[in-house]
Structures are given as structure tokens and as C-alpha cells.
Description:
The chain is an alpha+beta fold. The chain has helices spanning about 5-20, 35-45, 50-55, 95-105, 155-160, 160-165, 170-190, 230-240, 275-295, 320-330, 340-350, 360-370, 425-440, 450-460, 470-480, and strands spanning about 60-70, 75-80, 85-90, 110-120, 125-135, 195, 200, 215, 220-225, 245-250, 265-275, 300-305, 305-310, 315-320, 380-385, 395, 400-410, 415-420, 465-470. The longest helix is centred in the middle third of the chain and has 23 residues, at about 170-190. It starts with a helix and ends in a 16-residue tail after the last helix. The mean pLDDT is about 95.
Amino acid sequence: MAQDENEIIQQRKKKIREMTEEGIPLYAHRYDPEDSAETILTSYGNASPETLEKEKPSVIVAGRIIALRRFGKAAFAHIQDGTGKIQIFAAKNVLSAEEFRLSKKLDIGDIIGVRGILFFTRTGELTIEIRELKLLTKAVRPLPEKWHGLKDKEIRYRQRYLDLIANPEVQQTFVQRSRVIAALREFMNRRGFIEVETPMMQPIPGGATARPFITHHNALGIDLYLRIAPELYLKRLLVGGFERVYELNRNFRNEGMDLQHNPEFTMIEFYMAYADYTDMMTLTEELLSEITGKVHDSLLLDYKGHQIDMTPPYRRLPYKSALESALQEKGFAPETLLETEAARKAAEALEIPIPAKASRSKILDKLFETLVEEKLVQPTFVIDYPTDLSPLSKRKPDNPDEVERFELFIAGREMANAFSELNDPEDQRSRFEAQVAERRGGDEEAMYMDLDFVRAMEYGMPPAAGEGIGIDRLIMLLTGNESIRDVILFPQMRP
């Protein structure tokens, strides 16, 4: 802690002791603000000084002091509530003696409640002349130096409360996040989907290829895994007779962190019986265009120097042809897609790190990630993935080496993953066995065998399609943020 900050804290603690001895309440139980900065400014900001002088409108607001200027027998301050800021004015000849003494003891950061009369200052700023003043919370710590333009990302992420005080636009990001999630729920409910909840702690991590977090349940005496995806539980509900289900869920993956990845993240995952992945493409277009329109009043987004058009329909791009074109542009022959060694040599030539025992499809997917993804700026469904990359997807009837799967890319980032769901229990068992073999070979992200899920499928799961959409990345796109940490209130940080 800086020496000058420590001195300010000691001064404030001394002031707190003095106020306590004087019987001044420092931490109120409740307060009833009848107005807000936004409603006051909206209602009276364009009024004339003569109108305010005649009507003398009375308002009651509460907020944090963010600026303070004293002039002997008077003081001006700005207070900030959840809607904005407004100026207040304290005068010795208006307040009671006790309230004026209280006003002299206030500091930046304190939270107060005021009742007063509106007027315009000589400079034309709408201001509340305080008639009643109440201290609601005494701040012990000062706001950081230059807090008005707090830019230090370490401080902003670690002490999000300061970020929210200092940067009102950050508050708006999370207001928008809340609105998007509410709109998602409304969209799904309107189409007959039922919101459900599935376990966050699972005996077998499934539904995605990812490295899980491990925890221990003392009462049961077993290790459990934090959920990497809710998929296998949601599909059990299809077996049980729910035909349309969704979950807004938190997932946990013990992986790297960068601008797009946080180990704890939010998704919406949903499943629809009697549908396939083409139905999901249509539903996704309807969902994203509707939500974009609600948030922006336009389907055109400015993001990372691009204007992105969210108007349906979105482009369909086969995985194989996209990768083949990208490799040919780099001078590699078509057999790169067919032979493991050729694919590995291409990756080495492009300086893409590949695990020693990686399968051909895993190598190709690294090539796709490097060569193709960042070019997919406008909304694009990449369709028809290799079968061994998609252990839960239904094979294409005319090509068993590919599955009915798509990933949606926008601004070079994966936004959604969906497929026609595999519902053949024997095929599912053999896919799990192949994943187990990859895990034994050193792939820590390969799936585990889930025999109970296979058992559930043996009772009969209807043909269905399912999809997951990354909420954090969607919020990044809709709010113009380039880092996932800017749309998560409390991102994971190294201690």
C-alpha cells in the first residue's frame, strides 16, 4: 500500500472514531430513495430556471460521493447511483447545524442520502440544494489515485468493485449481459423449451472433450468432477420424455487462459427431439438475429474493425473443403487431408505444435484452427466434421467418415457447436471405447466411458439435435469487448 494512501486511511479511521464518539451513525440500516440521477436529469434537465424556481421540485436520492469541493460555508459534490451522477449543494444557512457539521466530515467514497430542491447553477448544471442529509455508509479507504479513469487491468479485474465505480461503461456491459440472458430465456420459453438444472459435480465428466477439475465428496468418500458440459444429462431427459430442454449452465475446464478462454464460463445448451442439425441452424439464426436486434436496434455490429451483419441466412461452409482450400493456399497437396504423416509435416512447416501421439483428425483440427478460423468474420456455419472429432454426433448417411455437426464462427471465434445427436447405443459405446483408447494413449481431453448413459440410450432416445452457445463470447461480440475477462464480473486470476 502506498504511504500516502495508508496515511489517508489512518486519518479516516480517526475521523470515524470521533464521529462515533459524537453519536453519528456511520452505517445506516435502510433508506428510501424515491428518485434516481437518471430520472431527475430526464425529467428536469431541459426545464427552465424560472420553472424550477416556481415549482421547487423536491427529490430524494442516494449515492456515492465521487467529487467534493468545499467553500467555507458551502460545498458542491457529485453523487453517483446505479443510473448516473448528479450534483448536490450543501449550504450552512439551509441545513441544520448538525447536518452542516456532518457535511464537513464527508469524504469522497462515502454513500449518502439527500432530500432537496432542484435548481440550476450559474453554469447551467442541474443541482440538488440539500434540505436533509443522512450518512448511509462511511468509506474507510479512499478511491485509488486517478480512479476516474481507472485503466490498470490487474486492479480492474481483481477489484471489480472499483472498476464498476470508476468506469460506468463497465456497468453497462453487465447490464447488457443480464438483458441478453433474459432474452435468451424468453426466446427458448416461447418455443416450448423447458429450463432444467443438471449436476455441476459429476462422477464421470462427459459431453465434451476437455480436461476436468477434480474435487472430493467427503460424505460419499468419492472423487467427483466439475462439469465440463451438461450434455449427457440433458440427453437423459430426452430419453425420459422431455422433448425440448435447455440449461443456462456454468462449465469448468482445467485448461489454458487467454482472450477467449476462462476456466469457468457460461453456456446455454439446448436439445430438441425429432430435429437434426439443419433445424438447429435455422433456430440459431432466428435466436441470434432476434437478440442482436433487441440489444442494438440493428443487425449490423462494429467489432474489431469489421462490420458484421447478423441478418440470416448465414453461410454454410463444409469443414473439409474449407481446410483443403486453406492448405492449398499454403502450397500443400490434397493428400495432406488423407495421410497422418502428411498432415503432421504440414503442421511442422507452419510451426503449429502438435502432440506426439495426436491422431490425424486432431492434427487437421489444429490446422483448421490456425488457417481457417480467423478468416471467418461474417457469421458462418462450418458443417460436416470428421467422425472421430465428434464422438457424440450422428454420422452422415452418405458418408460415415463425417457427422452432421456444425460450429458457428463469428469474428474469427467459435460461438456455437451443434449436431444431430447420436442415438444408436452400440455406435455410442464404440465411440466411447475409441475415446478411452485415446485417453490411455495420453490424450487428457478424451472422453471417459459412461455406461449409464449408454444404458439410458438402450431404452430409446428419439432422434434429436442439440447445441451449445458460449454466452461469454456472445456478450463480447454484442458489447464490443475483445477479452473474455471484460464480460465476466470476477474472472480467474493468479494470486
